[in-house]
Amino acid sequence: MLRDWQSVRAEVLRRIHARDWKPGEMIPNEADLAAEFGCARSTVNRALRDIAQSGLLDRRRKAGTRVASNPAARATLTIPVMREEIEGTGRKYGYQLLSRSTEIPPVAESAAMQLPPDGTLLHIRALHLADDRPFALENRWIDPGVVPGVADAHFERISANEWLLQNAAYTHGEIAFSATVAGPADAPLLGCAAGAPLFVTERLTWDTTRAVTRVRILFAPGYQMRTGL
Amino acid sequence: MLRDWQSVRAEVLRRIHARDWKPGEMIPNEADLAAEFGCARSTVNRALRDIAQSGLLDRRRKAGTRVASNPAARATLTIPVMREEIEGTGRKYGYQLLSRSTEIPPVAESAAMQLPPDGTLLHIRALHLADDRPFALENRWIDPGVVPGVADAHFERISANEWLLQNAAYTHGEIAFSATVAGPADAPLLGCAAGAPLFVTERLTWDTTRAVTRVRILFAPGYQMRTGL
DNA sequence: GAGTGGTCTAGACCACGGG
DNA sequence: CCGTGGTCTAGACCACTCG
């Protein structure tokens, strides 16, 4: 008698794990499982939906539920505000504004943000520090037309990262991770040698149909982004 | 009259977005919202649970539901089998086994896998190709004691990646992303210059309490991992 | 057409944890 | 203590899609 959906999930996972139900194979439908487990169908539904979300099950109306044959691993990355990322590991957070100006961005930026190539954006460069040592170098473009009030924010004490979270809304975004080398301009800021390998994140956030901000962050050497699987 | 949980979710998101409910603020309880929306409480529950999972709401029994003040962005990464990642972008997948042997691993590996430092593991090195060009270099250690049958797998035609998915079970794992530079040994295999920046993933998977495999993958220069936000 | 998952409902009980 | 979210139930209708 399995009483709650987490028990059902555990039992289903056990059967998949034990190869009772093999990859690619169909599993019984919800009604049958509910009867077997002695619970309501909605409880089984909740459990199976949860497993399907993790990628281990493939569910389709009428076609039924089958065990995924090549389950792609799914990992949920939590990307906190940089202050919290640093303080969360017990280190002291520091912040330093490098520059703030209104400029015409490189075409790569305006294109990505779907803006005319001759418009101006707010350009912020800042350094985040952990225990007074360089941690990450932020290079950000903000569309002031989409973020009211940003013209009055000077970003000297509070990072654009946090200010935007409090003051700007966004509906969705994209993020990319890659690797690059420290250039001669960036290396001294990050306290590393030119040519050192750097982990990079690039984010682009949207408010419905308009790009809010685009940011590229270079992390000091040794940075790792980790998560469970 | 909001009839389904997705409409409820949309309306709640709209109110958060419109700052009707500000960051850190409490929102009405489920029963009240259900009454207002003209639907059952469970429908509201489903919607709010979904939003909470994305990090925008913070829910606690008795304390109620409040809008997150510093919502950490959450992104779900889908990490497919390498073959599917390459074929999914319309390129031809290629695979080449570089070496396969039984060795005593470096202590870093045995320690991470929580194994005695004098035990042996199966060591696989392989190259994944996209359109006949180097795509990623895989360096993997497998515990044959945890994966029955792995001693008979030669991995000449099928990658360890795929073989393990079909033949080995795992319950959980960890994954880390970072950056490194191409060493003199790896550079020619990846078709790049020594010193080129490489994106790296390191994965460690477990079957309950025993480490199954540890793999480090170096991606050829230019690789990006992207996802929605 | 018919079987399957997706969802809604109304009511109920319970666990947690703030006050 | 007691309000709030977490969950279960039984039944119902519906949408999708396979055959």
Automatic annotation (TrEMBL), chains A, B:
What SMART domains does the annotation carry?
Answer: HTH_GNTR, UTRA
Molecular function GO labels: DNA binding; DNA-binding transcription factor activity
The organism's superkingdom is given as Bacteria
The record's keywords, sorted A to Z, are:
DNA-binding, Transcription, Transcription regulation
Q: Does the keyword DNA-binding apply?
A: yes
Could you list the residue ranges that cross the membrane? none
Family matches, as InterPro entries: Bact_HTH_transcr_reg (IPR050679), Chorismate_lyase_/UTRA_dom_sf (IPR028978), Tscrpt_reg_HTH_GntR (IPR000524), UTRA (IPR011663), WH-like_DNA-bd_sf (IPR036388), WH_DNA-bd_sf (IPR036390)
**Ranges where the HTH gntR-type domain occurs:** 2-70
Q: What is this protein called?
A: UTRA domain-containing protein
